[in-house]
Amino acid sequence: MAAVLESLLREEVSVAAAVRWIARSAQSSEVTAPTRPQAWPESAFRDDPGEAAALSSLRPLRKEFVPFLLNFLREQSSRVLPQGPPTPAKAPGSSAALPGRPGGPPRGGRGARSQLFPPTEPSSTAAAEAPSARRGGRRRGPGPGRERGGRGSGGLEEGVSGESSPWAGGRRPRGSGSPGSPSLARSDPPNLSNLEEFPPVGSVPPGPAGRTKPSRRINPTPVSEERSLSKPKTCFTSPPINCVPSSQSSVPDTSPWGHGLPPGCRSLQEEREMLRKERSKQLQQSPTPACPTSESGSPLPSRTGNLTAEPADPARVSSRQRLELIALIYSSCIAENLVPNLFLELFFVLQLLTARRMVATKESDLEPIPGALDSLESPLFQSVHDCVFFAVQVLEHQFQVLSYLDKGTLKLLAENERLLCFSPALQGRLRAAYEGSVAKVSLAMPPSAQAVSFQPETDNRANFSSDRAFHTFKKQRDVFFEVLREWEDRHEEPGWDFEKGLGSRIRAMMGQLSAACSHSHFVRLFQKQLLQMCQSPSGTGGTVLGEAPDVLSMLGADKLGRLRRLQERLVAPQSSGGPCPPPTFPGCQGFFRDFILSASSFQFNQHLMDSLSLKIRELNSLALPQPEPSDEDGESDVDWQGERRQFAMVLLSLRLLAKFLGFVAFLPYRGPEPPPTRELQDSILALRSQVPPALDVRALLQQGLRARRAVLTVPWLVEFLSLADHIVPLLDYYRSIFTLLLHLHRSLVLSKESEGEMCFLNKLLLLAVLGWLFQIPTVPEDLFFLEEGQLDTFEVDTVTSEQGLDGMPVVDQHLLYTCCPYIGELRKLLASWVSGSSGRSGGFVRKITPTTTTGLGAQPPRTTQGLQAQLAQAFFHNQPPSLRRTVEFVAERIGSNCVKHIKFCQKKSPGAVRALLPEETPAAVLSSAENIAVGLATEKACAWLSANITALIRREVKAAVSRTLRAQGPEPAARGERRGCSRACEHHAPLPSHLISEIKDVLALAVGPRDPEEGVSPEHLEQLLGQLGQTLRCRQFLCPPAEQHLAKCSVELASLLVADQIPVLGPPVQHRLERGQARRLLHMLLSLWKDDFQVPVPLQLLLSPRNLGLLADTRPREWDLLLFLLRELVEKGLMGRTEIEACLGSLHDAQWPKDFSEELATLFNPLLAEPHMPEPQLRACELVQTNRGTVLAQS
Amino acid sequence: MILTKAQYDEIAQCLVSVPPTRQSLRKLKQRFPSQSQATLLSIFSQEYQKHIKRTHAKHHTSEAIESYYQRYLNGVGRNGAAPVLLDLANEVDYAPSLMARIILERFLQEHEETPPSKSVINSMLRDPSQIPDGVLANQVYQCIVNDCCYGPLVDCIKHAIGHEHEVLLRDLLLEKSLSFLDEDQLRAKGYDKTPDFILQVPVAVEGHIIHWIESKASFGDECSHHAYLHDQFWSYWNRFGPGLVIYWYGFIQELDCNRERGILLKACFPTDIVTLCHSLA
């Protein structure tokens, strides 16, 4: 390979020819089209018969060229970027041996950084010794890498070092000058013991700044997952169902799936033991004492001196031509997608751009070796000037991609003084791109992080098999949210552990889900909540677009909360590490992952997979409404905003669902490493190849490619595959998927802009996600280069009759960065350069933007507009989803039509909404829905107008709409029924509760005990009865139980009046109620009983032994009031004589004083014998009674 | 009437071992003239209930019951007209209505062939006229009308208060033209948890979205609020999103800490309701 590079350098072969040569190895015919990057020199296209000859001899090595080139560049840069491999690179396959590979990878200590790509499998006899030949070729080379001698297995060293990088899942290299490298004398080894530069993740860095560069070291105390599982044990067994997942959340989430490993039955003690072993192993394997591991903690001299950036000078660039050439060929490889990860290369280039200084070496090294310019004999980068020159060269070629980055990155690039110094032209173009950038598109995602709403259609009793199931689910819903709230409150607390805190509660709840129907209910709830909480970017730790926040203004902010959040961010593990982070479950996603793990229920997992698959199919095939072909330029803009928003919503949902589907589907197979032996692997492959996939993703991918919907399908497929286990890429089924994806990747040449071509940002999104996928630890690192020979086996026959999604501008920068937050690493890198502390800095950009989870409750919106938007969201939240779809559909269509016909919206929308919604929709809901539709449609129309018509007209339009709306007004809500009041009633009567309470007090006073000064006035009693009348007539607040008690109390009161038991308050002291007053009160009561009570009044209580007994105790006994009352009752028809008779009859059982019984008999017999008495006789009766009373008193 | 925790504690401190009589209430009103009567009564009642819950068991041991019954018998034996049962309840620091129940139950056990059912006892407490013993009937009645925290009358008053506030709230909602579904309608539709009102179109109060409103005609103290949160408010949130709780007799200020989470507390009907307005900004 070096020969190719050398022949290039000697100009025996032109760059264009070389690129064609390389690309042809992929046999992707598309490359024949001129695909030159911008600023490609014309001379590069010279073709020469000699070239072909020069290259043809190297034919078998063709596909190894790119890995060689990339490794070469990494190796060359190791002196400038000595602080480790912020450019993550795939280490040689540690144990990801592919079938057919003769043996395990070589082992030994070696600078892992320089080994970017592993040897690929020999594809021909000539290349049978390719790996060694390649290494040999390298050995022939004069570069520093060559001098390192025996290449070891950097990968393996990773495997035992007892540390794993948080972004590499334990397989990525760390530290350029890694232990065991003999070249340490030349390049300063990174001081891994310097805690300031390499603070363990999880510890609080001493300074305020975090690090931009991916953390390479983690605090190894809790032995990470892959470590504990590298023991040949549970790799391929599913976790025991009843095995309680061990506590894990205190462990930094280093593995891609965090807790996804077989629930360990590890104790801390075991971990410590393993740690000790690992440490001793590592010490044995690191011959260089200069590279102690961080935990040894020996304070070595700090390298902070190196942090000062050396000025870069274009005039001092050595071997300019050579650098130009290599930059060109490197850029061409990038442009042709011959490199696995576009953004990784950009990151690398930016690292070169921002290199601080060359690591001090022997003076002679800095001098160009004479006559070696055309070969690889001398180091490529001899100074910082070289690095910067090379970087700027590459950036010039990659300008098109750069121009699509977010505004913040563009600004930092445009402001980079080195860039300005080396290429004022590029700086100018970047500045122009920055100024023209509108990459601050707001997605306007709903801030909804609410609970899934209860929908009677799916959630009421009719949907359950039994009352029990219904009530069980009711409880489960509450437990689920209780657990969720507790997680929200506590998951960031140090020492809190998901499993310990919530595990048993979750399992107890899952245990109640006996019926399959209950499972499906719960899964629906779980999935909906997942979508609600994690779909929005804020739930996944998205980064802020646009201008990078100013550190000073941030620190100067007087808000304590901000500083607190800053502190939290510094303590919290970084959500995104490096340009190629492993798949993680940021924010709320962590809850759902841990829930699945803690629940450890196979029924639940199965139902969840079914449900996720169905939803994925549904969303994936969703016909995203296509904007009508526009006849006016402006109109399409109006529509594309909505289009993009909807696309983003669907895409983000799909990605989330697919990620969880992948997580659950591959959960039983997940292990930290591939199987240790070939035999084992074969048997596993045999087993696995017969298992049908959880979801036929291959068919969906093929459909997606055919229908030109790759931009929708591929991003979620990548999420799904990112959680696959090590075996998956080896299975025929998935292998064919990877082949398709590789083919697609190669075809996404950004510089191609022809009719029917995919939109630029769509391509960029796919390149980013695919590039990321190719770096996932479980994807064999050589897959990218290995597969290329087979690319021609599959032809995608796209049905391009209609324009698919791929050709529509559905992706914007916001979506790109939301899906691929790691692209933001470019900005962080540049920002850290500005901050001048590249060694450990840079995180500040991210840290200011807290990526904490969205609270379950929404933050109070600050503006009226925000509040209104939130209200609209909230409105839809509790309505069936169809309502929202209808409203949006109407708004979309009407808004669009209105623009065409400039009529207006409020007349059409309500009718359309009404026509589309079900008839039983409540009036208020309908009215709101209509109004929102009008508002949205008007908004859309206004958006168009604002772009096309003058402000004056716009105001007119708005005013007209407002007027119309106000005139319509919300229909007055129907007044509640009158509940028996008269029409004129104003409901000012005293409250029933108040009256019961008042009467109770009187009763209490009457029966005592009471203080000497206590009593009631007759006026008060009269007033009370008056109020009772009012209350009984108003009835607004009256409920039957209250009325019943009032009736009973009124009878008790009458009994006390009759027995003269009411203590009357008044001068001078307590006394009895006057006869006339008592009678007046009884009259009032009679009238209430007759006219006002609507419940039966228990008048028979008047003659109960207890109430009559009140009379028995009085001396002299006063019968006249009782007789008066009874006569009146009979008179008014309130009681019949027979009824009274019956009551009196029952009195015989009671034990009375003998004389009392006799008196009773004497008095009542005439009463009962009396015929119907007309009104006038009352007064006579009174007289009689008075006499009788006197008689009685005398007796 | 929103009280700070400190203010509340000061009031609660004065309620320790105070019998639930109207005399006690009168004194309490004098002690805290600035507080509304209803609030004080609500606080008193809740504190007293907490006290009874704590001490309930010790009054229900068979020894205790036997001892109370003997004291009752001795007391009424000396003077049936004296407030024997009421005095006994106050003396042993137990609610008069509950003491009446203990004695009534014990009495019936002695005088009936079969042990009395709960419904029989409840019915007799509601209408002491049914009690076969005249003296006991009077004693029980006296306990019930003098107890301001327990008993059928108090229960009825509480129920009535709750109902009245729901009606009040309904009228206020109608007055504001806010359409809603009430508890009965929700139950008819098969909702498994039903707040007093669900707004068909949400509103905002003090910047917080409100989907449902629950009326509580009591004072929101820590104990009751936490119980309500667990049994009702969070369940509503889990189904309908954020909502509003109106504690008509006030609450402890510090409990209003879940606003951001979606549970807003108020002591009255909110005045600044923002509705989804449809005119263009």
TrEMBL record, chain B:
<keyword id="KW-0539">Nucleus</keyword>
<keyword id="KW-0963">Cytoplasm</keyword>
<dbReference type="GO" id="GO:0005634">
    <property type="term" value="C:nucleus"/>
</dbReference>
<protein>
    <recommendedName>
        <fullName>CDAN1-interacting nuclease 1</fullName>
    </recommendedName>
</protein>
<dbReference type="InterPro" id="IPR029404">
    <property type="entry name" value="CDIN1"/>
</dbReference>
<dbReference type="GO" id="GO:0005737">
    <property type="term" value="C:cytoplasm"/>
</dbReference>
<dbReference type="Pfam" id="PF14811">
    <property type="entry name" value="TPD"/>
</dbReference>
<dbReference type="GO" id="GO:0030218">
    <property type="term" value="P:erythrocyte differentiation"/>
</dbReference>
